[in-house]
Each structure stands twice: as C-alpha cells, then as structure tokens.
Amino acid sequence: MRAGGTPAAWRGDGVAPGWEAAFEAVPRSAFLPDVMWPYDMGRRRAVTVARSEAPESWRAFADADVPIVTQWDDGAHEGTSPGRVSTSSASMPSVVAAMLGDLRVADGDRVLEVGTGTGWNAALLSHRLGDDRVTTVEVEPAVAAAARGALERAGYRPTVLSGDGRAGHAARAPYDRVIATCGVREIPYAWVQQTAQGGVVLAPWGTHFGNGDAVVRLEVAGQCASGRFTRRVEFMKLRAQRTAVRHHDRVPPEGTAAAEASTTALTEGICSATRAGTAPS
Ligand SMILES: C[S@@+](CC[C@H](N)C(=O)[O-])C[C@H]1O[C@@H](n2cnc3c(N)ncnc32)[C@H](O)[C@@H]1O
C-alpha cells in the first residue's frame, strides 16, 4: 500500500515539471523516525522532537521546509539530546526538489543515488522512474536497513545497498544519472566511469575551507565530465571527505581584533632588487 501525500507549504515554491506526482504520492513523513532532530529556524539549532510525545510538532516539522537530522556521530550517539556531528538526515524538501529538477531525468533513465539516508529521495526516484531503474548506496548499514524498511512500507523496492558510495556500484552500471546527496570535495572518478555517454553526474561540491557546497552538474563525454554549478546548498559530507580544516575552529570569535600585528620596512622594489642582485647594501 503506497502512502498518500500531504500538501506542504514549501511546494508552493514549485516542483520541477514531471515531479509533481511523485511529491504528491510520497510524503517525507513516511521516511522519518519517531525521534528526530529537525532544524528549528527560529531557535537556529536542531531540536529533539518525539512523535510519541509531541505528534503535532512532529507532523509540522515533517512537512516543513527544514532539514531533519536522523543520526548523530555515525550511530555512536545515545539518548535523545542532539549529538555532536550530524551524520544522516532527511534533506530540506525544497533542496531535494531542486536537485531532482537539476537532474533532468527522462522516462527509462537508470539512476544511482549515493547517500540513501532515510530513503525518501530514492522513493521519489522510484515513483518517477520505476523501482528497477533506481540503485541507492548508503555507507551506514543501520541507516540502509532503516531506509529499506521505510521504502518497503511505502510500497517501493529500489536496489538499496550498504557500502561506500565512492566506488559507485559497477554491477548495475551504466547509469544515465548519478546523484550524490552528500557533499563531496572531489568527484570520485568511478561515478564518471559508471555513467553512460551523455549522462549526468550531479553532486554538492565544495572546498575544504568551508562547509558550503554548490551543486555541480557534469555531463559525461568520452573519459571526461564537465559542466556548471546550478545552486548553492549545504550537505553533510561523504564520509571519507569530511572537512579536515574548519576555519571557525581556528579563528577566534573576535576575529582579527586580538591578533598580533607587526610591520616591515621591506617594499616590493627592495625584494625585486634583492632577487636581481642589485639591492642597495
Ligand atoms: C543528507 S543524507 C541523505 C539524504 C537522503 N538522500 C534522503 O532522502 O533522506 C547523506 C547520507 O549520505 C550518507 N553517506 C555519507 N558518506 C557516504 C558514502 N561514502 N557512501 C554512501 N553514503 C554515504 C550518510 O550516511 C547519510 O545517510
């Protein structure tokens, strides 16, 4: 029995043509756990919401245009308070819709998703393209198992694999579309190799100098993939590419005000002359 959709305010912003029926049929709420940690825009932090204790609040957050953390600290977290690092989530619905629009699928396309998470995006893809055309890979076995269960309860049976999505999944390649729903700092070349000629790799990409990403849409031609950025986003990162350098850990909150200052009498002219061996002694 497939779950019926509920209207959500964020859909007023528009869902790409061809995706309306999928968003209508597949509500995000069907993929959320009883205890979850939505981002509360007013309080600017993740809050704990338990369906058993606050069903109306749970439903309001499930239908709201906010990201919802569903796992902390790679599963090592215990209790119901938010953990340290969010490691799995249901992404912000407007971002999910925008990225599916960027993907520009056609009937019959075969898709690989990296980052199954709750399984909601895989369900939307399955509704649009058919179960047999969707493969999704999740690094965290418990998250993959929960997604598989939620997908089955909602009436969808895409191929859900547990493993490191950096390697893609060669056995079901070639794909017409590869979509990553975790941020990357480098595009794994396996994704390009497993994409059909003319196909697309879509991924949130960024640098190690910040947490932000931009969705890059790469078209595969020959051995290469090239393309443009479509929009700014921020995703939790592919496990092996989590940000190593975080500026805010190193820069004090007062900024440069407390920094040591020094000056030099050297000028560019003196430096050039020194290099040329003509500096005045
Ligand atoms: C933002 S969530 C994905 C949201 C998901 N698409 C949905 O519809 O709910 C990112 C997911 O990527 C997974 N992930 C991180 N690194 C991965 C990797 N190397 N391979 C596969 N999945 C990975 C995380 O465990 C997490 O579940």
TrEMBL record:
It holds the Pfam family PCMT. Its main location: cytoplasm. InterPro entries: PCMT, SAM-dependent_MTases_sf. Keywords: Cytoplasm, Methyltransferase, S-adenosyl-L-methionine, Transferase. The keyword S-adenosyl-L-methionine applies. One of its GO terms (biological process) is methylation. The keyword Transferase applies. One of its GO terms (molecular function) is protein-L-isoaspartate (D-aspartate) O-methyltransferase activity. It is found in: Cytoplasm. GO terms for cellular component: cytoplasm. Its EC number is 2.1.1.77. It comes from the Bacteria. Belongs to the methyltransferase superfamily. L-isoaspartyl/D-aspartyl protein methyltransferase family. This is Protein-L-isoaspartate O-methyltransferase. It comes from Actinacidiphila reveromycinica. The lineage of its organism: Bacteria, Bacillati, Actinomycetota, Actinomycetes, Kitasatosporales.
